[in-house]
Amino acid sequence: MRAWGMTHRGAVREQNQDSFRIVELGSALLCVVCDGMGGALAGDVASDLAVEVFCENVSAAARSRDTAAVLRTAVLAANNAVFEKAYSDPAYYGMGTTLVAAFVTPRQTLVVNVGDSRAYQIDRNGINRITNDHSLVEDLVRRGELTPDQARFHPKKNLITRALGAEPLVDCDIFRPSLRQGDHLLLCSDGLINTLCSQEILYETIHGGPEDDCCQRMIDIALQRGAPDNVTAVLIRI
User: Fold this and answer.
1) Each residue of 199-210: pLDDT tens digit?
2) For residue 142, pLDDT beyond 70
3) Strand, helix or coil at 194?
4) Is there a contact between 200 and 9 (Cβ–Cβ < 8 Å)?
5) What domain range includes position 182?
6) CA–CA separation, 160 and 114 (whole Å)
7) 162-220 pLDDT per residue, tens
C-alpha cells in the first residue's frame, strides 16, 4: 500500500482551512481529510485539531479487533475536542469541520465520514463514490427532488447538515468497501469535487500519468478552473 496527499488554498481563498494526514501503523495505513467550515471562524483550527485528535485516538487503539468501534470513538473524541475549543474561546465560536478517513489493512478497508468530504473507489472498470454527503442538496437528491448533476451546481450545495464541533455529539457513517490489489481509494474535500467531475478524477488516476503526481495534476486542473475553495486530495493505492 502507498499513499500520496496534497492540499492547496485554491485560487480565491486567502487561507487554507483544509487539513490532511497520512499515518503508517505497522501494516495498516490511516489517512484522513478534514475541511474546516468555510464561513465560520477558525476553520483551519478546527480541521487541524480534528485531524490531530482523530489520528491520536486511532493510533492508540490500532491493534483492536473492532476497527469500526475505534473509528467511531476517534470521531467522537475529535468532535468533543473541536466543540470544547469552539465554546470555550469567543475567537473560535461556531467553528467546525468535516472529516473523511480510511483505515486500510491487508485484510480490510474501513471508511468513515462526517460532512461532505468524500471517498471514492477507483479501478480500471470505473469510479464509485463510497460516502454519502451530509448536506442539504444530498438530502434533496435522496428524496428525488434534485438530480446529481443539478446538485453539483445548486446554490446551496455547501450547506452541510452534519459536522464535527457543531453539537456535543455527532453521528458518523462507516463503510466497508471491497478493494483488491491495484485498486485506488481517493479521499478529498469538496474543493476538488466541485471543480472536477468523477470521470476526470477517474482519468487522472488511471491514465493521467504517474501515481505520485496524481494529486498534483488534479489540483492543477482545479486551479486552472478558478478553484474558488481550498482543494485537498489523498490517493491510496491498495
Assistant:
1) 999 999 999 999
2) yes
3) coil
4) no
5) 2-237
6) 9
7) 999 999 999 999 999 999 999 999 999 999 999 999 999 999 999 999 999 999 999 99
Strand ranges (E), 84-224? 99-104, 109-114, 118-123, 126-129, 173-175, 184-188
Q: Which of 8, 30, 3 is nearest to 19 (CA)?
A: 8
Q: Judge whether 170 and 163 are in contact, CB under 8 Å.
A: yes
Q: What are the grid coordinates assigned to 115, written together?
A: 460532512
Query: What φ, ψ does residue 218 adopt, rounded to 5°?
Result: -65, -40
E strand segments, the chain? 2-8, 18-25, 28-35, 99-104, 109-114, 118-123, 126-129, 173-175, 184-188, 231-237
What amino acid is encoded at 226 in this protein?
G
- Whether 97 and 47 have beta carbons less than 8 Å apart is answered as yes
Report how far Cα 62 is from the mean position of its chain's Cα atoms: 20
Question: With a threshold of 0.90, does the pTM exceed it?
Answer: yes
CB 170 within 8 A of CB 164: yes
- As for how many domains the chain has, the answer is 1
Distance separating alpha carbons of residues 70 and 90, to the nearest angstrom? 31
Whichever domain contains 54, its CATH number is 3.60.40.10
